[in-house]
Write a structure and sequence with these properties.
Order of helices and strands: HHHHHHHHHHH
Shape: elongated
Helix content: over 70%
Distance between the termini: 69 Å
Number of helices: 11
Number of domains: 2
Length: 188
């Protein structure tokens, strides 16, 4: 009967454990108890805990290239709108354990140097891809830093996530403006 539990069920439980309790909460015994199955079910799908943790990290690392391929059509403004809508949808899905959570991965990276190096490398790739996607490295880095702050605050103050659509509209406007127009607005 335990074999009926799928790999995705274990991944969802692991994503939620990582989000809610950090990497130490991602324990086979704990996940099995939460899912109401024996540990044997876990080993039907994964070699060991390290295999599961590696998979969690790899799926997060591949997230942005996959997302950008989903929203690669249209004008620059249309692509930015589509990307922001996709990010909003994925934020909600991450809260349900359906996709990786930036907040969970960043918290893990802050306590594990090896994971931290991989996250740093993935973030650089994210910024490069976003720069190619939208253009304007400075604006992309600013957008990314704003996103990180939003994610961190959302962990501490969950009700702040309700403002995401409003913040997203502001970001879309800022990223959509031509660079010259943006610079002229900054001058007194």
């Amino acid at each position: 009967m335990d074999k009926d539990l799928g790999r995705e069920d274990w991944l969802r439980a692991a994503r939620l454990a990582l989000l809610r309790g950090g990497v130490e909460a991602v324990r086979v015994e704990r996940l099995a108890r939460h899912l109401g199955v024996t540990k044997g079910s876990f080993y039907w799908h994964f070699k060991d805990r390290d295999d599961l943790l590696e998979l969690l990290l790899r799926e997060w690392e591949s997230e942005v290239p996959q997302m950008l391929s989903e929203v690669s059509r249209g004008s620059r403004r249309e692509k930015i709108h589509a990307l922001v809508r996709l990010v909003e949808r994925r934020v909600n899905l991450s809260e349900e354990g359906e996709v990786p959570s930036d907040a969970a991965i960043f918290a893990w990276a802050s306590i594990d140097q090896k994971v931290g190096r991989r996250v740093n490398k993935a973030e650089e790739l994210r910024i490069q891809l976003l720069n190619q996607f939208v253009g304007g490295r400075d604006r992309i880095e600013l957008f990314y830093l704003l996103w990180l702050g939003f994610v961190a605050r959302g962990q501490r103050v969950p009700e702040s996530r309700k403002r995401f659509p409003e913040i997203a509209r502001f970001l879309v406007e800022a990223l959509s403006k031509p660079k010259a127009k943006l610079q002229s607005q900054q001058r007194p």
